[in-house]
Amino acid sequence: MLKKIEIFFRQVFLNILLLVYGKTKSKKIETFNSDSRILFIRLNKIGDALVTTPLFNEVKKKLGCKVYVLADRKNYFIFENNPSVDEVKIFNKGIGGIFDVRRFIKKNNIETLVDLHDDVSTTVSFIIALSGVKNKFGLKKSNNKIYTKTVERLDSAANHIIDRMLEFSKLFNININNSEVSVRFYPKTESTEKARQWINNYNPDNTFLLGINISAGSDARFWGLNNYRQLVALLNEYNLLYIIFSTPGDYDLARQIVDEKFIYPPSKDFSDFAAAILELNMLFTPDTSVIHIASVKNIPVFGVYVKYNTHDMIWSPYNTNFDCVITEEPTLKNVTFEEVKKKFIPFLEQTLNV
User: Fold this and answer.
1) What is the pTM of this model?
2) What is the tens place of the pLDDT at every residue in 185-205?
3) Which of 10, 69, 322, 335 is most exposed by smallest CB count within 10 Å?
């Protein structure tokens, strides 16, 4: 009940903001250059952050401007070492956090805010409406009045999430060849060194290396111990090596699939995990954020996906060789090994022979 009351009052306050701070759409063609200062807003999860990085890279490359990112404590590390991002601001929840962002905007003379969220966020709407900046960009959605300019929200059932993010480039008057862009992530130097040392010791002959990630953020996307055991048995028939990846919380599950020597040391630091993924020749995963890390280096990916109660296009790796098995049930429980094997073997053999 308290949650419903909170949602009600947040919506009331948002409606007031739309009336008081809503702006008429600008027909003026804005000019952006190396003196421009742009703050992109992307809160929420890791995958949400990764899919915005191609846009940041293109804006920085084409304009040479200052690029700032307002991020969440759950995803700020995705942007930290990115040379296309000049500064990352971590958002602190609550009204104090909103006014803290306003001070940050004023301190850095930011004149353009970009709301990268697909759906209406009351928090982000407050930030934008109260920002005091000249340019306020967003997708066409129900809170249109707070933006000075909007771009079409492409159909999520027919367009990749990264293509949808790249639509924002039109507001900056830059041309992008979507086939040439990629996700950008830069692990910490120590994470890369640790990953390469471990993998060189594990794979001194530089044999084809396949990573199997078993963790996916929810039990619904765990494929099952027996399925992974059968997958490992299948891989033993090929001239390759495999590594099991898991979160620290799933480490005991990984140990029930293979001996510890086949498991990459779990870490709470996403950079450690991602650095090792970037050393692979191929990835098998049920997780949609990990596939974007693989696409940084165009590492082929085979996915096992849950697509439940949604018409949205799956989050496949961008401009990267990919295949998958998809279930429209709420979990992977009924996705059999034989079903996956039928599609996985041709994909694996094709990748091995490239």
Assistant:
1) 0.91
2) 999 999 999 999 999 999 999
3) 10
